[in-house]
Design brief:
The chain has a single domain, classed as 3 helical TM bundles of succinate and fumarate reductases, CATH 1.20.1300. It has 4 helices and no strands. By secondary structure, the protein is mostly helical. The protein is elongated and about 50 Å long. The chain has helices at residues 2-33, 38-45, 49-78, 82-108.
């Protein structure tokens, strides 16, 4: 049952990530072609609830997706099982979430 829940969580996180990745790429293309400086980009993102929610959702989805994917790899290639496997998944997920949250806060806090 756990495998089915993890499978579904990874697929749902992928569904959330698709529009966010496309949005992020579109924003990056706009910024590069517009010749925006870092200061101009931060001027637009800092203090914005919309950008906080956009990139915050992105970080959560990536953290879930990557942690489950690495869990599968650790099991299939590394032979990890049980608590070691679960601990690895939770550590990777928490680490990605912490790093991503720090980046989101740096870009969106005024």
């Amino acid at each position: 049952m756990l495998d089915l829940r993890l499978y579904m969580a990874q697929r749902l996180s992928a569904l959330v990530m698709v529009p966010l990745v496309l949005g992020h790429i579109a924003v990056m293309i706009y910024a590069i072609q517009g010749g925006l400086s870092t200061a101009e980009i931060l001027g637009r993102t800092q203090g914005s609830l919309l950008w906080f929610l956009f990139y915050g959702s992105f970080v959560i989805a990536v953290s879930v997706h990557a942690a489950i994917g690495l869990r599968v790899i650790a099991h299939e290639w590394g032979g990890q099982k049980g608590r070691t496997l679960d601990g690895l998944m939770w550590a990777v997920g928490a680490g990605l979430l912490a790093l991503g949250a720090r980046a989101v806060l740096a870009v969106t806090l005024p």
